[in-house]
C-alpha cells in the first residue's frame, strides 16, 4: 500500500468507539440490536451502540423500532419523512428533492457533513468540477484546488426493490453521522460530504413493501417457492433498472446521473443484496479495457480496506473477487467509473423483507469455489447453514460503509488527486493513442438521420464533448475528439469491444455495446493527428434534431425507406390526424424523377401538405412530393391493433417492449394469460407481440404455481401501491392449453403472432408453429455480442430497408430450425456464409455429376468449415460460432390465414439496439402482407 494511505489508523477508533465515547449511549438500542442479531459474530463493534443526541431523533425515536427490527419495512414516504425530520433537527443534514419517478414520486438526496461544510457546498462542488476537468486545473494549481475541495462519497440504496435492507440501514447511518461525536465519526463529518439516495426506485420500493407486508411476511420458510418479489418494481424493466446507464431511458437513471454531474462524487457506492454474507466488489475480470489502471487499483484498495476492517471486528463471510467481472459499463453506478470516479457495490445477503430465515449455503458456488470454502479472497467463510435476520443485514452493510467512509476521510487528498489524474490520463491517451477521434458523418450521409441525431444527443448526455464542422465537403459532420476528460468513455462507447477469448470465467452481462452498430449509424474512426488542427469546428451545446423536408410538389408523398426508426411513429400519428390518408409499401424498387427508391419505400396518398410537413419536421423524415404514384407493385400499410403479452413471473422484457412502444408513440394493449384464455382475440387484435421472457415452454404455459392461488395483484386499502402498471385478480397460472388454443385460433383466423428471443419457445416448442423445432447446440457460447446477419428472403417486408448484410445484437438463448423443405421460411440468417451439405459430391445414378448444394437450405445435417465466416462477430465474442452461422435468425411461418413471425434474438433489447427496432415495426406495418 502507498505510504499516503492511512485508513487502517481509523479502524481501532471504530472498534473502540463504544468504550471510549463520552457521549451518552442508547441502552435500549444496544439491547435490541443484540436481540435482533442472530449470532454475536454478526454484530461488529462499530454498530453495536448508538449515541444519544438531545433534539436529534434516532430511527427508534421516530418510528418506535430500530433499523432491522423483525417484520418492519418502511415505504418511501416514511423513509423520506425520517430524513426530513433529521434535517429539521440538525444543521448537519440537508434533504433535497432531485427527481421524480415515472409515477410522480419524489427521488430524494440527503447531504450530510458538518454544518460549516454544508454552508459552503457550492464552493466544494465548484472545486470538484475543476478537478473533473484537468484543463481547468493545471498541475501547478492542483494542490491549491485539492486544498479547497472535499471528497464526496455517494451511497445509492434500494435500486433493486426486493433488496430491501439498505433504506433501513441508511436511516441509522445518517443518524450516526449526524449525531455521533466520537473522533472517527467526527473526522468523516468534517472531511467528507456524504450523499445518500436512500430509495433509488421509489415506485418499486412502495410496491415491494406492500408485497412484503401483505404476503411474504407470513412465510416462515425461506425456500417455500412463494414469489418473494412483486411482479413489477418500476413501470417498465425489473432487474434491468440497473442496466440503463448507456440508454439513460429511466427516471431513476436520469436522476442518478444528475446527482453525479452536480456533485462529481469521488466514490459511488451501490448497496445491493444477493450473495452471502457480504460481497465487496472488485470482480474476476476481464475488466473493461478502457478503465484507467488507477481505478482498477482503487477497487482493490477500497475492497481490501473494508474486508480488513470487518475481519478485524470478527465478521465472517466477507469476501471479494469471485462474483461479477467488471466489463459491462452500463450499470447505474458506472457513471462514476465512466467519468473518472470510483464506482463500486456491495452484495449483502438479504431475505426480501424483515423475516429471519435459515439459509442453506451448501450448494452456493462462485467462480468454481463453494461460498463456504476458505480462499485468499474470503479468509473467513460462512457455515453451510446460516440463520439470518434483517438486522444482520443492516449490521454488515453499515459496518462496511463506515469503514469506507473512514478510509475516504483519512485519504481524501489522495483520492481527489487520483480523480484529477484519471482525467489527465484520459486527455493524454486521447492525444497519443489511436483513434484520436471519431466522426459521425452528417445527416445527408446517414441511412437514418434521426438515429444519428439520437447518438449525438446520447453522447452529450454522457457529458462527452461533440463539435460540428461548418466548412468544406465535410460540413455538417460531427467530430468527437478523444483528448477530453472523458475521452476513454468516447472510445468505450464508439469503439469495438474485444472481449478476451481466453477469459476463464463467463461474463456477468453483455459484452458488446458499440453504439454505432446498435443505432445503425455510420461512425468513422480518425487515426490521423491532423484532427487536432481541423478548422471550422464549433462545439455542439444544444440538443440536435435531424432535419426533415418535403421536396417537390404534388399530392402523393414518397419516402425512400432505409429502415428509419420513426416511420411507424409517423404513420400512426398521420392516421390519428387524418384518418382518410393511406400509406402503401412498394414491393419493388422504382424511379421517380431523378431519384431511385428501394423496395419497401412508402407512398402516402390523401394527406394534406401541412400534415406531411409536420411529419417531416417532427420525425426527421424526408418526403418527395409528386403528382401521381409511381407504377410500382405495392400493398397498403394497414396499421394493426397491437397487443403486447406479458407473463406475471417474468415482466422485464415486456416492460422494455412497452417502454419502446410508448417512446415511439405506437399504441398497444397489454394482455396476459387471462386475456388469452378469454378468447375472441382476432376480434380485438391484428398483432400479438410476445416479448422475450425466460423459462421453459412448460413454465411459459403454467406460470406461477397455482398452489398459491388466488394471488391478487391489485390496488386495495391494504395494498395501495399494487395494481400498477398492470393488475390482475390472480397472477398464478399461465395461459395453459386453453390459452394456446385461442392463440392458435387467432393466427388461423388471420392474425399475426410475433415472438421475440426466448419467447419463440411458445411457437417452436408447443406445436403452435409445426414447422419450427428447437435446434440443440453443443459448444455454442454467445454472450451479448453484435454479429452479422444475411438476408435470406430479399422480398420479405420484414426486411424492408435493410441491406443484404446487416448487424444485429444477440445474447445466449435458444435456437430454432425448420426442415430442408421449409428453408424458404427463413427470412434472416446468422452470419454471411451459407451451409455446405455433407452429401454434396458424386451422385449415384447420374455418372460424372455432383449433387448440387442447395444454398438456401438451413440443413440440420450441415456444418460450416472452421473459420468459414470469420466476419461473424462484429463486436464482442462468440465461441462455437460454426453452430450458429447459417441458422435461422427470423422465421416467417404461415398458419391458416395468418402467420407467426419468430425472432431467435431480441430486437427490443433494453431499449438499446435501435437499429433493430424497424424489424419489429416492419412486422407490424406489413402484418397481413406476405408477397
Q: What would your notes on this structure say?
A:
The chain is an alpha+beta fold and 931 residues long. The protein has four domains: 7-220 and 246-427, Zn peptidases (Aminopeptidase); 433-539; 549-636, Alpha-Beta Plaits, CATH 3.30.70; 642-925, Rossmann fold (3-Layer(aba) Sandwich), CATH 3.40.50.880. The chain has 28 helices and 37 strands. The radius of gyration is 29 Å and the shape is globular.
Topology:
Layout (H helix, E strand, L loop, with lengths): L10 H5 L1 H4 L6 H10 L22 H5 L12 H14 L3 E8 L5 E7 L2 H4 L2 H12 L6 H9 L4 E5 L8 H15 L3 H9 L1 E5 L4 H13 L36 H13 L3 E7 L4 E3 L12 H20 L5 E2 L14 H4 L4 E7 L8 E4 L4 E2 L2 E2 L14 E4 L1 H21 L1 H21 L4 E4 L8 H13 L5 E3 L8 E4 L5 H8 L20 H5 L4 E3 L10 E3 L9 E4 L3 E4 L7 H11 L4 E5 L3 E3 L2 E3 L4 E4 L3 H11 L2 E5 L7 E3 L5 E4 L6 H12 L5 E3 L1 H6 L2 H4 L2 E4 L6 H6 L33 H13 L3 E4 L5 H4 L8 E3 L9 E7 L13 E6 L4 E3 L8 E5 L42 E3 L12 E8 L2 E6 L13 H9 L6
Helix pairs in contact: 5-9, 8-16, 9-15, 10-15, 13-15, 20-21
